[in-house]
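Reopening this ticket.

The earlier resolution said the output was attached, but the attachment link was broken on my side. Pasting everything inline this time so it's all in one place.
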Amino acid sequence: METPGLVVQGEAASFSTALRSLLNNPQYSDVCFVVGQERQEVFAHRCLLACRCNFFRGLLGPKLGPGMPSPVVLSTVPAEAFLAVLEFLYTNSVRLHRHSVLEVLTAAVEYGLEELRELCLEFVVKVMDVEMVCEALQVAVTFGLGALQERCVAFIEAHSREALRTRGFLELSAPALLPLLRSDRLCVDEAELVLAARSWARVGATCFLKLSLQIPDTQSKSSCLLIFPNSAPIVFLIHVGAPARNLHLRLALFLCITAASCGFHLLRD
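Inline output:
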């Protein structure tokens, strides 16, 4: 009876280097992508992409006929991020950069590359700073990355004043803004928060935001901020005691419905 063979490992580094040489190399490639707004051509190999990623397997399908097929246009992913994805698929490693890691993370989520997604998440947590955190929060909310969302909110709570002044804060979507406005740990007073919401509304208040209301027993009053289209925010103060919480909830829900039907934007209660 023949004994089973023994699997031995060659040097991984030389294998990775050889595959890296094929990255975006027109020689021997059989698929061309046109990526990003800059419409940069990127060359790749169908068999490698298909065996490494279900997204590309479905996108490319079987090769039909001789020669190079028509370019595949991927206009929403920047070229640098797409090349990082290909680097990971070819070598199972990737060099990440602070300025582009969120775009690589977005591509990893969209292409179903869980291992690359986790590598990006670890890197984001390591390099997170005030200028980056709101953009990271937006990505987390968009793709349901709960752990990253919690990290971002905690970071903003610890660096509230600086974070609320960034361009990233002004560009948050309404669902991404909600966990910040509901937080009781922001290191700013109510007036500063209202001013930040006013600035946000002037830049990006384009949709109605539903609220889940929580009113502590010790809170004697609450403010409800309504953003009217093309005008300055108007603050309504609703004075209620703890026994009136149910009444307050019904009133707030009424305000939500009214605001939605009239095109207002309810930001905070």
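Reporter confirms the inline version is readable. Strands lie at 31-35, 40-44, 72-74, 221-227, 234-239, 265-268. The first strand starts at residue 31 and ends at 35.
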